[in-house]
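Entry:
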Amino acid sequence: MTDAQVTNAQMMNADAPLGRSAAFAILTTGYTLSTGPGVAATVSYVTDGDRHVIVDPGMVANRDRILGPLAELGLGPDDITDVILSHHHPDNIMNVGLFGRARVHDHKAIYQADQWTDRDAEGHELTASLRLIRTPGHSPEDITLLAGTEAAGVVAFVGDLWWRPNGPADDPVAPDREILRSSRLRVLAAADVIVPGHGGPFAADDNAPR
């Protein structure tokens, strides 16, 4: 199958957002004990229209690892409209409080100031190019943000569904290996690029651990 055929197939996938107007930047690339001096989250910035989104503002060596790259984009914490939490492990959420004006999204609700709005993340659209889906596996509440971009196709921000480009193939904390595999296959069917929880982006191709 050619690259064009793969992209066309992914655009036809029901999970993939219809829009392709989003853009993204990796603010800091995370690591785990096996790849770095400690544990840090991959923290991403995604934008579409008037939405300025941070994904998984988790553990980092210091907050400048998040706020410095954001400032280079001309943005401060109060400019962020939305924060996506892929799941509730501390290493992925530690710095959510930096973005006090934002709507915070998880698997079951949207939180802002003193307002709690219940909604299922499955299929929830922030915009036509930004869609949430449920992808349990690493934990029961895992969600993925699918961002339709012109430059990179569909980019999946998956939290710890994959920790890094090499998996791990067998997540040692996953409660059910088959559920993990099912969610990974769902993401691979919809995405062109995967942004994992503790590493750099990688192609959603046959080399991705299943």
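The chain has one domain: 3-203.
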